[in-house]
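Figure S7 source data.
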Amino acid sequence: MKETLVLKVNSRKPEIDKVRVAAELIRQGGLVAFPTETVYGLGADALNSRAILALFEAKKRPLDNPPIVHVENVSDVYKLAKQIPAKAERLMSKFWPGPLTLVFRRSDLVPDVTVAGLDTIAIRMPLHKVALALIRESGRPIAAPSANLSGKPSPTSAKHVIDDLNGSIDAILDSGSTRIGVESTVLDLSVSPPTVLRPGGTPFETLKKALGDVKLHPLIVAEKEMSIDKAPSPGMKHKHYAPNAKVILVEGSVQAVVREVKKLTDSYRLEGAKVGVLATDETMKAYKADVVKSVGSRFNLAVVAQNLFRLLREFDNEGVDVIMAEGVSVDGLGLAVMNRLRKASGYNIVKAD
Ligand code: TXA
Ligand code: MG
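Tokens for the predicted threonylcarbamoyladenylate complex:
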């Protein structure tokens, strides 16, 4: 077990000496967690196979699920990827830095482990001063999956990273809570039309406006676990975002959802289970469960996204056996929220009416 160095860094004016300590660790093949606008990432030199193997090991992540590579300038994209379509240049200038990851054909510069043997690579430029400074100072593209243990909810604060990875990573740059709270949108540009493989911080509606022709991969809209052998995004087929508690997602009109959550809560409690309800501002007063938490207003999905992963972790800390989660709208950031909740529930979805 190594000592994990915690470096507190100002998110608006990162202290360069601290960033340099972290950057040196990256250059030496170490693992450094850092904040982005979406969630905390666990960074390693994307061009160093040994560092990438250590990254998978620390997260206990299956080797077939490649991380996203983070850059701080567009010219690096031309080194890491090839056959970059004109559309990509438009997207990069419009949405970068920001919560949009683009999947390209990869170049030969990239080690096989970094892309899990695929012939594509996922790249993004994060909108966070600390992340950009770390990439710049290390002089390397930084591979960074979310800095959680594989399968757990992504970390939206340094505390979450410590809870999962303390002692198995070299350092963490701590700049407080992340702003968006769900991961970036992953858009595959190696296919036509461009296809969203993971909904995230850049809403589908926004991409549609920019691209015209863009589709959602069928697995994203799926409300059941779909079995496909060759998922286009390896992350699609792995268990994800799951707290220890069993999650039941209840979808439908608000009144029907409240009625169903109450009914399920009562029956689980009768069986002796400790029940948590993931409610919204509009509904939380309606429940009498062991733990009731509001994820925010149904009418402010940005706040819901911001709170989601933190609350899933809090329920675990309170030791609940079951979490009843209310569904929200799939508009805007709601699609990412609902995708995470569906996965967290293992597609244990109740339709209330
Ligand atoms: O917001 C984010 O994207 C965060 C922060 C740290 O930047 N990162 C993140 O990384 O969420 P990760 O590794 O947890 O998720 C990456 C997703 C996975 O679902 C993975 O399967 C997919 O991107 N992915 C990576 N490379 C891919 C590729 N070449 N083709 C398709 N999907 C890919
Ligand atoms: Mg992840």
